[in-house]
Design goal:
This protein is an all-alpha fold. It is built from nine helices and no strands. The longest helix is centred in the middle third of the chain and has 109 residues, at 212-320.
Length: 528
């Protein structure tokens, strides 16, 4: 029965691991409940073997019925081949365990019935029979004595000679009868007195006789044998009672240690979960701020592009009409000044974006540290479950799930770190591009001054302006492209933060399920 119980625990642990790999949280929860009912059934079956209480048989039946229901319900949600094989193993082991327990329970019940109903009934009846036989022998002796006296008196009337002969014969007969009956009766009475005082080593006399005295001796021998068996049963029951008390103390100690270990682990997991949720919220806020700043930079880049197009239009007007040169030069200088200011502001915004990306990288590092701490806590929980033995296997599976969640969090933060590195690289390139725009605008100012001072060089100046305008257009296009990448990276950061928040919530929910299952298990053990 013990071997079947261990096989069932191993099978359901494998089933829980498979359901966890399939991310079937409902199935994992039902499997954990089934493990709890199986453990309670084993506890009550072990207590029955020690205490022999019929109420414990009923409790084992209830727990195994609930266990069967949960296993049947898992059969509808398990889809993998390995999971169905584990269910078949569970069904076979369950039948074998139930048959073994029923056989043991029947044998113990029959033994207790024999002790309670047969030995207790045979003892008084044997004692009463012995008392009746003793009284019958005494009555018979009282009858034989007067009869012998009457026979002697009649012999005296017949004649002196006949009287003498009869007297001698009567005396011999009385002596023989007295010795044949009174002696064994006295020996039997002494043996019964010794038995009554607890001396079970006394020899029962007259067992070989074939008369009533022999029957009485046989009955007294049966009574003696029953007393010896009763003492042996009493000693056995006392030993079983001592074993029950010792086992109850061991179970109480294990329950107390398990409660303390689980409470500490759940407290640490809860603290780590709260810290993960707080960090994920901070990441989400930072991602939103990054997205907002990227939008502002995109608007500034569009403005710079519009300014560059204006400069291009001014250059075309300069080549078509020399009279408009002065006005176009003034307008170009004004637009260049605006573009220079816009470029400076854009440069400041991009530098702020770089700082925000650096802060996001710090937050990602913090999340990685938390994930490593959670992984360490899961390892500690696994060690504590291993110390708890078979009773901690269900908890070891849950600790493994916490460890997997921590690993997923670490992978997610690593991906976020890569994205942040990309943002920082693109931001650095944007800073360089905006500086190039500023330098281009300064060149436009110089070209405008050259146009104002030397009209004869307008053709060459116009071509130079066109070339610089093309470079500025390319720069603004590159800035716009980089800003799109920044916006996309910020969105991915927000999504990763949402995933971290969801993982932390799932971890908190699983911790709560584990806490409730442990509380229910300990309550059941204490109530038993």
């Amino acid at each position: 029965m013990h071997e079947a119980g261990q096989s069932a625990e191993k099978a359901i642990s494998n089933l829980m691991q498979g359901l966890q790999e399939e991310f079937n949280t409902d199935g994992v929860y039902d499997a954990g409940r089934a493990m709890r009912h199986l453990l309670l059934a084993q506890i009550y079956s072990n207590r029955f073997l020690v205490e022999n209480e019929r109420s414990q048989i009923l409790r084992v039946t209830v727990e195994m019925t609930e266990f069967r229901k949960l296993i049947d319900s898992l059969g509808h949600v398990v889809g993998s081949t390995s999971g169905r094989e584990e269910l078949e193993i569970l069904s076979e082991v369950l039948d074998r365990w139930t048959a073994s327990f029923d056989g043991v329970a029947k044998a113990i019940s029959e033994r207790n019935d024999i002790v309670a109903y047969q030995l207790d009934m045979i003892g008084p009846s044997v004692a009463a029979g012995l008392e009746e036989m003793k009284q019958a022998n005494i009555d018979e002796q009282d009858i034989i004595g007067p009869q012998a006296t009457a026979a002697i008196e009649r012999s005296l009337v017949i004649g002196i000679i006949a009287s003498a002969v009869a007297l001698v014969f009567g005396l011999l007969s009385a002596i023989l009868i007295g010795r044949g009956i009174a002696g064994p009766i006295r020996s039997m009475t002494a043996a019964m007195g010794a038995l009554a005082e607890g001396d079970k080593a006394v020899e029962i006399p007259a067992q070989g006789r074939r008369d009533e005295v022999g029957e009485m001796a046989a009955a007294v021998q049966v009574f003696k044998d029953n007393m010896i068996r009763a003492d042996a049963l009493a000693a056995e029951q006392e030993a079983e009672r001592a074993k029950r008390e010792q086992r109850a103390q061991v179970i109480e100690g294990l329950t107390r240690d398990f409660d303390e270990a689980v409470a500490e682990v759940l407290s640490q997991v809860g603290a780590a979960t709260s810290e993960m949720q707080s960090t994920a919220t901070s990441m989400s806020t930072t991602a939103e701020e990054t997205n907002r700043q990227a939008t502002a930079v995109a608007a500034a880049a569009e403005q710079a592009s519009a300014n560059v197009q204006t400069v291009a239009s001014a250059a075309e007007e300069l080549s078509s009409s020399i009279e408009e040169i002065s006005r176009q030069v003034a307008q170009s200088a004004e637009i260049a000044g605006q573009a220079s200011g816009d470029a400076q502001r854009t440069n400041q915004q991009v530098e702020g974006l770089a700082q925000a990306a650096q802060k996001i990288g710090q937050v990602v590092q913090l999340i990685q540290d938390i994930a490593e701490q959670t992984n360490l806590l899961a390892l500690n929980a696994t060690i504590e479950a291993a110390r708890a033995g078979d009773a901690g296997k269900g908890f070891a599976v849950v600790a493994s799930e916490v460890k997997n969640l921590a690993s997923q969090t670490a992978k997610a933060t690593e991906e976020i770190g890569l994205q942040i590195s990309g943002i920082q690289t693109e931001t650095s390139e944007a800073v360089g591009a905006i500086r190039g725009i500023g330098e281009t605008i300064n060149k436009i100012n110089e070209i405008a001054a050259t146009i104002a001072s030397a009209v004869e060089e307008q053709g060459a100046a116009t071509r130079e302006i066109s070339r610089n305008v093309l470079e500025a257009a390319k720069g603004t296009e590159e800035v716009s492209s980089n800003i799109v990448n920044v916006t996309q990276a910020a969105g991915e950061t927000g999504a990763a933060a949402g995933q971290v928040t969801a993982s932390a919530g799932n971890l908190a929910e699983q911790s709560d399920h584990l806490r409730k299952a442990v509380e229910a298990f300990l309550s059941g053990v204490r109530a038993a």
